């Protein structure tokens, strides 16, 4: 079996596990994981031509929308008096995939101009409201890279976020963190607006990641390192080494990925991250065309 066929086979096994598992996980258990899974199932349903994945993602998204709260031109997901940046970013992205731009804009309106200080995205829910359920909730920090990726994705359909994207880009370059989404955001924005500081920033982060011993990585850490290496470096041997380690963590009977070579715990979030990492690897193989921004948004 050649490399492309093997990796697609491994992804299919993992998606089978995800498909079986998510039908038994109620939305209230983990909204964060559900939204990540919805986005991944939707993307993979189209990429692998599997309608059952699209159908499941649609059903799961309908359940998430039971937590939707609207106020004038704003909207957000509120659960147990809380809302998170990442929930609302994922919901906006899913609406964009479905070409429901007006709904997406309402969620993006809530998040726009939410950057406070240098490294935080503070989410204040619906600006200007005095609703009791919202006033109880603390601010929640989110990822700058995740916000930047979502606005990049939104720009395909709405074309109004260049100024905010430039602002995020500048903050990340000045105060870069050990965050793979920051790296992917800077790479994809640099493809559109070339900036010589990007290479210096990415080299610094990649060198730190390459100092991690492969054998000591958990499945999630391996996925993160591989994603970031793929974003910027041409260190093929290192990437192949990480890939082989990741594949060794997959149970070929269930399709699930476990945490590490010394920890047999298999979890949905490990499996989701490893599917994404394998798809990103596939995106670099000759002949494979993939919309990386859509995958990561």
Shape: globular
Radius of gyration: 19 Å
- Terminal residue distance: 31 Å
Which regions contain 5 or more consecutive residues with pLDDT less than 50?
A: 116-122, 124-141
Helical fraction: 55-70%
Mean of the pLDDT scores?
Answer: 80
Q: Describe the main β-sheet briefly.
A: 3 strands, antiparallel
Number of contiguous helices: 14
Question: Which structural category do the helix and sheet elements fall into?
Answer: mainly alpha
Q: Count the beta strands.
A: 7
Order of neighbouring strands in the sheet with most strands: 3-4-5
Beta-strand share of residues: 5-15%
Topology pattern, helix = H, strand = E: HHHEEHHEEHEHHHHHHEEHH
How would you portray this structure in words?
The protein has 297 residues and is mainly alpha-helical. It has 14 helices and seven strands. It has helices spanning 3-22, 31-47, 51-64, 85-97, 101-111, 132-135, 144-155, 162-174, 180-192, 197-209, 219-232, 236-248, 268-284, 292-296; strands at residues 68-71, 74-77, 115-116, 120-123, 140-142, 258-260, 263-266. It has a three-stranded antiparallel beta sheet with strand order 3-4-5. Strands 1-2 form a two-stranded antiparallel sheet. Strands 6-7 form a two-stranded antiparallel ribbon. Helix 2 packs parallel to helix 13 and helix 11 (219-232) packs parallel to helix 13. The longest helix is centred in the first third of the chain and has 20 residues, at 3-22. The protein is globular.
């Amino acid at each position: 079996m050649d490399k492309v066929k093997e990796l697609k086979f491994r992804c299919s096994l993992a998606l089978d596990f995800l498909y079986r598992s998510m039908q038994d996980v109620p939305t209230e258990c983990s909204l964060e994981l559900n939204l990540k899974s919805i986005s991944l199932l939707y993307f993979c349903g189209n990429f692998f031509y599997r309608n059952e994945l699209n159908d499941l993602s649609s059903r799961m998204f309908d359940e998430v929308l039971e937590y939707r709260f609207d106020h004038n031109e704003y909207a957000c997901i509120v659960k147990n008096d809380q809302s998170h940046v990442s929930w609302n970013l994922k919901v906006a992205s899913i609406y964009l995939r479905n070409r429901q731009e007006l709904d997406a804009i309402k969620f993006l309106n809530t998040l726009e101009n939410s950057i406070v200080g240098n490294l935080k995205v503070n989410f204040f829910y619906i600006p200007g409201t005095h609703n009791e359920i919202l006033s109880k909730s603390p601010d929640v920090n989110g990822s700058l890279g995740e916000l930047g990726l979502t606005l990049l994705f939104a720009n395909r359909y709405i074309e109004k976020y260049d100024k905010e994207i430039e602002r995020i880009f500048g903050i990340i370059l000045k105060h870069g963190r050990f965050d793979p989404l920051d790296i992917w955001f800077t790479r994809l924005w640099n493809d559109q607006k070339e900036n010589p500081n990007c290479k210096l920033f990415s080299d610094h982060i990649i060198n730190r990641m390459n100092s991690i011993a492969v054998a000591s990585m958990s499945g999630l850490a391996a996925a993160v390192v591989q994603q970031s290496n793929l974003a910027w470096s041409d260190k093929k041997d290192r990437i192949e080494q990480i890939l082989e380690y990741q594949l060794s963590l997959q149970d070929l009977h269930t399709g699930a990925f476990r945490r590490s070579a010394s920890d047999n715990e298999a979890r949905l979030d490990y499996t989701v991250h490893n599917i994404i990492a394998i798809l990103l690897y596939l995106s670099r193989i000759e002949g494979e065309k993939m919309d990386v921004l859509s995958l990561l948004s």
